[in-house]
Amino acid sequence: MEYLKQIISEIECNYLKMQNCDAVNTIDWIDSIQNFRHREKNPTLFVFLKGIRCVSLLNASLVLLEKGFLQEMGIFFRCLDESIEDICLFIPDLVAKNDCTKTIQKEMLEDFYQEEFEDISVPLLKNNKRNTIRRKNVRATNARNLYNPIDVYNHAQINQTIYNMNSGYIHGAYPHIMELYNSCICPNYNTSGITHSLRIQENKHELLRHVYSLTLVAKNIAIILDNPYLSEEFSNTQKNIEDTEPQFKANNTETFKSLGIIKNDASSS
After folding, report:
1. What is the chain's mean pLDDT, rounded?
2. Contact 155, 256 (CB under 8 A)
3. CA distance 59 to 64
4. How far apart are CA 123 and CA 55, in angstroms?
5. Of 20, 95, 89, whose CA–CA distance to 50 is shortest?
6. What is the DSSP letter of 19?
7. Element of type H or E holding 182
8. What's the pTM?
9. Which residue, of 20, 50, 196, 260, has the greatest Cβ tally within 10 A?
10. In a domain? residue 121
11. Residue 86 falls in which region: left (phi positive, over 0), alpha (psi -120 to 50) or beta
């Protein structure tokens, strides 16, 4: 547990340093909505903010793990998977300094930056309609961006299976709820957290997998923000994790494949 705390804290510290980059720090206070908004909304800001959400989700997952709320971690894992997939939709073009002109990219940006209400100064009047981006289309696009291309259909199917597994925790599917039942000693439903379970170790490993995934995308985001120093810092964190969990290093290529990240000289080590 202490290792997870240390490595997540390290990632958070380095990631927050990127907020000082010119491309993402033009923020103004808007009186009409009593909140902050960026002056320029673009793909670079998109990937940076999605990473901010991931860092927050990692910290929240750590709190749940300490308290034994493993089901609720499944909800956060799905949110993490979605955010990382969204980031990977843009990384290849941004690292190559290409314009993000794919239809799915433009739709993703429009949906992301859309305000929740038609008139943001009067929020209770009417919600804006959101055009939900189909996850299978995101995965298929990411699969086509692979450094070593694999079958697009199989790539999407694998990620869909993982996605559906964690979806059951969001919707409260029967098989997932029954994981809370404990027949040992005093049969009962564990509604206050599970502190003694083999699944705790499984969730620790799954959390570290998501930490590793964010590290891989974060060093690319640092490249996009023209910060080679922080990119190297994330590379060092990646090596730290691989030294602790050798299977990550052994599966590095497959990890890149599952994320849809292009390996390049600046980001691979």
Report:
1. 82
2. no
3. 9
4. 28
5. 89
6. G
7. strand 181-182
8. 0.83
9. 260
10. yes
11. alpha
**Residue range of the domain that includes 99:** 2-259
Cβ within 8 Å of residue 95, ≥6 positions away:
220, 223, 224, 262, 264, 266, 267
Q: Specify if 22 maps to a domain.
A: yes
**What are the CA-CA distances from residue 44 to residues 94, 103, 152, 256, 260 (Å)?**
7, 17, 26, 20, 17
**Got the DSSP string for 128-170?**
PPP-PPPHHHHHHHHHHT-SS---HHHHHHHHHHHHHHHHHHH
What whole-number distance in Å separates Cα of residue 72 and Cα of residue 234? 28
Q: String of b and e for 238-263 (b: at least 16 CB within 10 Å)?
A: beebbeebeebeebbeebbbbbbbbb
Residue 153 tokens, joined: 């259909």
User: Has residue 27 been placed in a domain?
Assistant: yes
What's the pLDDT score for residue 91? 92
Closest C-alpha to 238, from 62, 76, 11: 11
Q: Name residue, tokens 């990631």.
A: 15
State both tokens at 218: 């974060």
CA distance 73 to 90: 26
Domains identified in the chain, total number: 1
Angle at 81 between CA 77 and CA 85, to 5 degrees: 170
Within 13 Å of residue 97, how many CA atoms lie on the same side as its CB?
3
Is residue 245 a contact partner of residue 79, using CB atoms and an 8 Å limit? no
For residue 157, give every residue at least 6 positions away whose Cβ sits within 8 Å of its Cβ, in sequence order, or none: none
Gap between the Cα atoms of 269 and 212, Å rounded: 14
Judge whether 268 lies within some domain: no
